[in-house]
């Protein structure tokens, strides 16, 4: 429980800290400019606009933090906060993470966990069967003669990899599962099926990029395990996938 909490809290902590740093820089510059020569009309306009921008950044971030525990009902407001999360606050955390020499994978995992908290708060109990489970091709055994490139119904269920277990979950809860061999195919699968919720399995980098590409859709991220190295015969926790499905159906 403690490890999960720390994994979630690092990303929002770095975003909050970056906003505090930006606020300190802003007010320091404003005070120095005012006490030195006073503010010209142009400087007054500039600092006013910067203050409005800073206020928007801080207030939106507070709203995003609230969304981890409370549902945002207006869909337009929910899309706005998601866009800000993926296109503004993500980069703020990345920037500060580099300053403090944080490993990129750790920050990405925290970002994914934070996103999952938002998805669970806003989409739990929607009672929808229109769920798309996206899987990476590296879950499949490399020696398997059946190359699954789309619907995992083609899996022979030999049990050599986790695809068979996922197929069982798919049948049990009547949800669609597909293997995406790349970002382009994943985007096509999403656009074609227009799911209410996506449960995506991949590595840190692919999940982070995928979430940002498909920011309009609610995506619950599940990290795969890589006992044999990246992109080769990876594993996934089927119980984690089942947990997510139960939250949405």
SSE string = HHHHEHEHEHEH
Q: Strand count, sense and closure of the main sheet?
A: 4 strands, parallel
Number of helices: 8
Number of domains: 2
Describe the structure in your own words:
With 249 residues, the protein is α/β, with parallel strands linked by helices. It folds into two domains: 2-122, no CATH class; 126-248, Rossmann fold (3-Layer(aba) Sandwich), CATH 3.40.50. 60% of the residues lie in helices and 9% in strands. The chain contains eight helices and four strands. The chain has a four-stranded parallel β-sheet, with helices on both faces. Helix 5 links the parallel strand 1 and strand 2. Helix 1 (2-36) packs antiparallel against helix 2. It starts with a helix and ends with a helix.
Explain briefly what this protein structure is.
The chain is α/β, with parallel strands linked by helices and 249 residues long. Helices cover 60% and strands 9% of the residues.
List keywords for this structure.
249 residues, alpha/beta, Rossmann fold, four-stranded parallel β-sheet, 4 strands, 60% helix, elongated
SSE topology sketch:
Blueprint: H1 2-36, H2 41-66, H3 75-99, H4 104-123, E1 131-136, H5 163-173, E2 176-180, H6 183-193, E3 197-202, H7 204-213, E4 219-223, H8 238-248
Helix pairs in contact: 1-2, 1-3, 1-4, 2-3, 4-7, 5-8
């Amino acid at each position: 429980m403690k490890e999960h909490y720390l994994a979630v809290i690092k990303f929002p902590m770095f975003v909050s800290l970056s906003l505090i740093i930006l606020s300190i820089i802003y007010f320091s510059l404003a005070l120095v400019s005012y006490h030195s020569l006073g503010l010209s009309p142009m400087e007054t306009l500039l600092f006013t606009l910067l203050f409005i921008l800073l206020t928007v950044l801080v207030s939106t971030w507070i709203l995003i933090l609230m969304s981890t525990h409370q549902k945002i009902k207006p869909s337009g407001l929910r899309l706005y906060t998601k866009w800000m999360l993926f296109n503004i606050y993500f980069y703020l955390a990345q920037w500060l993470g580099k300053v403090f020499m944080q490993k990129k994978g750790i920050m990405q995992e925290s970002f994914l966990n934070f996103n999952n908290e938002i998805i669970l708060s806003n989409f739990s109990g929607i009672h929808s069967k229109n769920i798309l489970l996206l899987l990476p091709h590296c879950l499949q055994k490399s020696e398997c003669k059946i190359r699954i490139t789309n619907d995992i119904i083609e899996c022979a269920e030999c049990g050599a990899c986790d695809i068979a277990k996922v197929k069982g979950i798919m049948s049990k809860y009547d949800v669609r599962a597909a293997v995406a061999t790349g970002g382009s195919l994943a985007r096509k699968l999403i656009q074609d099926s227009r799911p209410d919720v996506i449960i995506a399995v991949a590595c840190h980098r692919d999940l982070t990029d995928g979430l940002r590409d498909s920011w309009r859709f609610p995506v619950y991220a599940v990290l795969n395990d890589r006992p044999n190295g990246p992109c080769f015969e990876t594993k996934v926790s089927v119980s984690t996938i089942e947990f997510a499905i139960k939250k949405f159906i």
